[in-house]
Hints:
This protein is mainly alpha-helical and 326 residues long. 70% of the residues lie in helices and 3% in strands.
Amino acid sequence: MLRFKPKMFQEASESYVTHSIPVKILIFIAAFIVILILESILPSVLALPKIMDELAADPLYTSGKKQLSFAEIMEIAAKYTHEPEIMIPNLLGTVFGTIVSLFCCRCIEMRHVRTMGVRKKRLVPHYLTGLGIGAVLMTSITLMTVLSGANSISLCSGINFGIIALYLLGFFVQGMSEEFIFRGFLMSSLGSKNTTLAIVVNSAAFGLAHGLNPGLTPLAMVNLILFGLFASFYVILFDDLWGACAIHSVWNFMQGNIYGISVSGSGKSESVFTVSQKSSHGFLTGGDFGIEGSIFTTLILLAATIIVLYSIKRRYHDKNETEQSA
C-alpha cells in the first residue's frame, strides 16, 4: 500500500524496545482492555440506580419468576446510558483512552510522544482544518441522504444549547481518545516495523472495537474500517495526530448534536436539527446504526480517502525529487 515510512514511524523505529509484531499487538490488547474497564466505571455507577429501580418495579423479576438474558439487561442499560446526565460523563470519561495510550507509549514502549504524532508544531492550524473537514464530510453525507429522498431534515424546537455545548466538549475528548488509541498508539507502534501493516491492522481494530454497537450491519462495519483508513492516511499526510482528532470529534458531534442522527448506534440526543428516515432501505439511511451505515457514507469516505492518498503521493514525490536534486 505505502512503501515509505513517515517521520513519526521512523522515529518510533529508532526508539522502540521490541520489533516483535505479536508483542506489539498483545500490548495493545492489554491496554485496550484496561481502557474499556476504566471508561466503563463512571457510566456504570451513574446508570446502576436507574437500572435497579426498573428491575425492582417488575414484580415477575423480583419474585424470581422471570429471568433476564444478557441481551435484555444490556437493552435496559442502553435506555439510561443514552441520557445526557450519563452520556456526557461517559464521553468525558473516555479521556482514559488518551491517558493509557500515552502511558503505554512512554513507560512500556519507552518512546517519545512525538512518535504518536503528538507535535506542537502547527497544532492549532491542523486542528482547525480538521474541524472544517469533519464538518464538511458529515454535512455532505447528510445532504446526500436528504436530496436522495432517503431522509428528511427539520429544525428542532426548544433547542437546549447548554446541553449541546456539553456534548461538544464530550466529543472533543472522545474523538481525541479514539485517535490516540488507534492511530496514535497502535498504528505508530506497528508502523515502526511496517507501514502497510500498521494502516490495515489499526483500521480493522477500529472497526472491530464497534462490533457490539446496536444496529451494526456489514455495510456499517465496512464504513467504520474505511473511516479508520481515511484517518490513518490523514495522520500520515500531515505527520501528526491533531487533524484526525478534530475530524473524528466534529464528525460525531455534527452527526449527533447538529443533525440529530444516532452516532454508531448510540441513539439520538439533543440536537439542532432532526434527520428522520423516509426510506425503508437500510443501506440508504443506515438503519438503527445511523448514517454511518449508509452507502452515502461509503461514497464520501472513499472520495476523501482517494484525495488524501493523492496528496500523500504528491507530497512524498515532491520530497524525493527535492532530495535527489540537492
